Amino acid sequence: MPDLPLTGHCVCGAVRFEITEPLAGASYCHCTRCQRRTGTAAAATARIAPGSLRWLSGEDRIRMWWPPDNGWGKAFCTECGSALFSRAPDDPEAIGIRLGLFDGDPGIRPTHRHHVATAAVWEPLPDDGLRRYDDAPT
Length: 138
Description:
The protein is mainly beta. The chain has a single domain (6-133), classed as Metal Binding Protein, Guanine Nucleotide Exchange Factor, Chain A (Beta Complex). The protein has one helix and eleven strands; from the N terminus they run βββαββββββββ.
């Protein structure tokens, strides 16, 4: 278990944050939206405990952009374009933060892969033993 708070930032460092409680879970999303948004085969994301996120700097540089139908709104840094987090449309406390933003070991590993029915054909899913869900897990 890493020391709390966990800290992290975007590529340019304009947006900095801390998380004051252990992360609630982590997963890989293989949906087409995440592929196009990240340019990779999957987005690695951790769910945070409600109320545990605190912005240290750059909150004015966060932009919620493209809230898709039937999906979580995506937030980006307006300076460097880093994908920061996703937020549930019906619950602003339900937040998934990108694992690549953390300064050190976040103390959690993805436990499953979801939306594997739309996984990229150019990168086979690894045989890593993680649970797989064709769509979103229930």
